[in-house]
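Re: [ENG-882] Designed sequences occasionally contain unexpected residues at chain ends

Forwarding the minimal case from QA. Structure tokens:
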């Protein structure tokens, strides 16, 4: 009986360990395929970009004001500052595993984003930019940074917040931030929609990989 129980427990544990990496693998594949489509300049990507741009972009003064202002939240300096604050709070409350998860995931995602940008070297849209932007276009750094940061906040909220109502509200708020930041990058003509989607896929991939490490080395124990 004792051996059977141990065997069942071992099977369950091994199965759960594998399950944590499956979603990350799926998103990694999706990102890789998307990056290859963008790099090859397929007609599908061209039609995708033009269709989304036609829906989003306009000359409404209120929309322009919002887009040029809200996009600042996704700036590298702002994302880095927020990340440091989160890490300090977690460290002060002795949530060391969550601190390493937050810092490690952000560093890995943004480091890989730099590599991807220079590997694909896609020029930015050749139209007037409503805000200043430098470097290559794919993937959108604002989208990667915001998807990773607020994805981490969603994970932390699900793990640390006990009240279900507060947990739900916070997760919805965190989800809105990267979506709106991605929208502003397209509206401001500094990124193609495919850049933004690629950034989201990359950010989610690294959040899931980071969570897999957190689960395997901390939560499961």
């Amino acid at each position: 009986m004792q051996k059977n129980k141990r065997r069942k427990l071992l099977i369950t544990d091994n199965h759960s360990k594998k399950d944590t990496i499956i979603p990350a693998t799926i998103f990694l594949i999706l990102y890789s395929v998307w990056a290859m489509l963008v790099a090859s300049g397929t007609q599908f990507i061209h039609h995708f970009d033009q269709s989304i741009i036609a829906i989003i972009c306009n000359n409404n003064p209120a929309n322009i004001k919002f887009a040029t202002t809200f996009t600042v939240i996704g700036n590298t300096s702002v994302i880095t500052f927020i990340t440091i604050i989160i890490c300090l709070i977690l460290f002060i409350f002795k949530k060391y595993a969550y601190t390493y998860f937050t810092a490690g995931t952000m560093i890995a995602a943004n480091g890989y984003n730099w590599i991807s940008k220079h590997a694909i070297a896609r020029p930015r849209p050749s139209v007037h930019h409503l805000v200043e932007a430098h470097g290559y276009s794919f993937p959108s750094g604002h989208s990667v940074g915001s998807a990773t940061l607020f994805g981490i906040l969603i994970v932390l909220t699900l793990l640390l917040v006990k009240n279900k109502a507060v947990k739900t509200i916070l997760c919805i708020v965190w989800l809105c931030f990267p979506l709106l930041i991605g929208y502003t990058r397209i509206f401001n003509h500094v990124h193609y929609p495919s850049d933004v989607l690629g950034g989201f896929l990359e950010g989610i991939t690294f959040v899931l990989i980071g969570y897999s490490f957190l689960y395997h080395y901390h939560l499961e124990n």
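QA comment: On inspection the terminal residues look reasonable. DSSP finds eight helices and no strands in the chain. Proposing we downgrade this to a documentation issue.
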